[in-house]
Amino acid sequence: MFNNLTERLESAFKNLKGEARITELNVANTVKDIRRALVDADVNYKIAKEFTDVVREKAMGEKVLNAINPGQLMVKIVQDQLTELMGGEAADFSITGNPAVILIAGLQGSGKTTFSGKLANYLKSKGKSPLLVAADIYRPAAIDQLMVLGGQINVEVYSERENKDAVDIARNAIKEAKAKNKNVVIIDTAGRLAVDEVMMTEVANIKKAVEPTEILFVVDSMTGQDAVNTAKAFNDRLDFSGVVLTKLDGDTRGGAALSIKYTVQKPIKFVSSGEKMDTLDVFYPDRMAQRILGMGDITSLVEKAQAQFDEVEAKKLEKKIRRNQFDFQDFLDQLQQIKKMGSLKDLMGMIPGIGKAVKDIDISDDAFKGVEAIIKSMTPFERSNPDVINPSRRLRIAKGAGKDISEVNAFMKQFEQMREMMKSMNKMPMGMGGMGALKGMRK
């Protein structure tokens, strides 16, 4: 995500490397490179120019403190301006009402239906009782897709296969929600391959009929400036309340994320990546600015960890580590929890300094399958007592996992090294200390 933009900005900051002070010349060169980087990321030239004009003005108005060199100061100025450009702070998401109604709009292929499922899953985790509504009466598989997603997250889906009036379906869904005590209704509307009057009229009529609490416009972040232009057309008709950026795990140049708030004056509320139902995050402009500048996002990483790691279980695990009783079952349990946090490459990218190192490395979400196979080929007794695994047991485990004995031996050695490391790190928060060790144990 944003890899090219990150590299271009880092290159721009090199203009100030070794400089003792800020001058008009070195600032001008840096600003010119920043503007080029933004335009290359598919940011509108007018926006890029206004952005860099502000950066230049602030840089020339600053006095460099003894503890801060010009390069560090420029990074801080750019970070603050990127944060401001993307909205400044996380936007509120209103789910008040009886029920709260959320209308989802956007072009076909932008990821509306998948996002609707993710949003339902997110709200369910917050204690809400959502109802998904299949109001796309044109795409043949739309209802079926929403049904499948609803089944995955155990959320009811309202549909009327024979009814070809989307407005009527939406109205009936509200009645259904009230009858079944559902406190949130998420309406997945139809999209088109391009903006057209029929689509706009239909979604505007749905809005008028159900008076939604939130109208979210879903944008494929890989489409860059085109997405921003489409957002403007939708906003002119719908006056939506917020934007959702999808497919952030793809080859995203950054144009949509950086331009859309400026263009339509509506905040980005959520970002989504991948197809899994738990890959939805609230959008924080300051955190995104940090990631764009290669600083990682340790706050989001900690929040993901806290959402998955049980405090009581973590304390039990800490005691086991202190006593050097950490076993293969503990390792497997921790591995499963880390996998629930999302894409391994995305997680590593949140660690400051690591994102750049792994950007060209293909890290599969199945990277630990070999390790899991080895552990699952052990008996429960062996998992709880690593020291009893002698050469004959290793040979049996290797055959059961479909691995060569050398792979099992290497894993056992790495596991012992990790146990020793974790003993020395037992004062760290549980669940996070083992991530570095896990990196080296993929098979």
- Care to count the β-strands? 8
Low-confidence stretches: 429-440
How large is the count of helical segments? 21
CATH level-1 class of the largest domain: Alpha Beta
Gyration radius (Cα, Å) is 25 Å
CATH topology of the largest domain: Rossmann fold
H-E string: HHHHEHEHEHEHEHEHEEHHHHHHHHHHH
CATH superfamily of the largest domain: P-loop containing nucleotide triphosphate hydrolases
User: What share of residues is helical?
Assistant: 40-55%
Describe this structure in words.
It is built from 21 helices and 8 strands. By secondary structure, it is α/β, with parallel strands linked by helices. It folds into 3 domains: 3-85, Four Helix Bundle (Hemerythrin (Met), subunit A), CATH 1.20.120; 100-295, P-loop containing nucleotide triphosphate hydrolases (Rossmann fold), CATH 3.40.50.300; 301-439, Signal recognition particle, SRP54 subunit, M-domain (434 Repressor (Amino-terminal Domain)). The protein has an 8-stranded mixed β-sheet, sandwiched between helices. Strand 6, helix 10 and strand 7 form a beta-alpha-beta unit. Helix 9 runs parallel beside helix 10. The longest helix is centred in the C-terminal third of the chain and has 20 residues, at 405-424. The radius of gyration is 25 Å and the shape is flat.
